[in-house]
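ok, trying the design again with the full structure, not the truncated one.
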């Protein structure tokens, strides 16, 4: 079975692990997934991550972040652009997520970055997902 949208699969695995109150989740690695995971770490949505070599493409182990009441730092994570309908935005139309309390992750010519950094870098791109 071929996977047509690995980013949606990545986000779904994180969402399912959060609902199951898992401490960590293992996901097949790719450069784009590593970049998204690094942004999640920098923005405080996950605790940490490790990259393991399995002789193939590698595995990302993402350690999820919970507070003392077992609430996750990620309350919502959603895919925006899909293989069937790509969503691009110019620098003037970069989305604000939850009045700038959440973030959008964009794939730009300058790399994968948040909506706030894309605005500072004055670059648009494909809107991959929303997180808050």
């Amino acid at each position: 079975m071929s996977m047509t949208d690995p980013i949606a699969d990545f986000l779904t695995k994180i969402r399912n692990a959060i609902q199951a109150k898992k401490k960590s989740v293992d996901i097949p690695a790719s450069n784009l997934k590593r970049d998204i995971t690094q942004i999640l770490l920098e923005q405080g949505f996950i605790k940490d991550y490790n990259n393991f070599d399995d002789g193939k493409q590698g595995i990302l182990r993402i350690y999820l972040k919970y507070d003392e009441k077992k609430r996750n730092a990620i309350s919502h994570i959603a895919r925006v652009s899909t293989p069937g309908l790509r969503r691009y935005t110019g620098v003037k139309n970069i989305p604000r997520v939850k009045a700038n309390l959440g973030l959008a992750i964009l794939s730009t010519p300058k790399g994968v970055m948040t909506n706030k950094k894309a605005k500072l870098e004055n670059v648009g791109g494909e809107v991959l997902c929303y997180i808050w």
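Keeping the full-length input from now on. The beta strands are 24-28, 46-52, 59-64, 77-79, 88-89, 103-108, 111-114, 125-131.
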